[in-house]
Amino acid sequence: MLGFNKKKNDPPEISEKMQLEKKIINTLKEIFDPEIPVNVFDLGLIYEINVQDDMKVHIVMTLTAPNCPVAEALPNEVKEKVAATKGVKECEVEMTFEPTWTKEMMSEEAMLDLGFL
Fold this sequence. Notes:
- This protein has 117 residues and is an alpha+beta fold.
- It has one domain: GMP Synthetase, Chain A, domain 3, CATH 3.30.300.130.
- 27% of the residues lie in helices and 15% in strands.
- The protein has a three-stranded mixed β-sheet with strand order 1-2-3, covered by helices on one side.
- A hairpin with a 4-residue loop joins strand 1 and strand 2.
- It is globular and about 40 Å long.
- Mean pLDDT is 89; it is low at 1-6.
């Protein structure tokens, strides 16, 4: 009976959303801060990825500093590239500076790449 009672407008399975989130993370790992040779995901700039049932994506992100030279360009690049990810209906990027970004937010791999470990 699996799938036979599913209606066309039923929300997608949790696993579909998780698979899409993995694709989004892979996309984010291809976007680099031009000032630091680390992708935005491992740099810790992505605070939240919310895949909604309709496959619209809401991302909460920050920058290394509020006066960062890429303050307009980087969020737009995230929005465009995530929106172009297969399975994503649309993407909205919300900027925040709370909490303030610190180097401790970077992944271990990023810290190694930058010589912090």
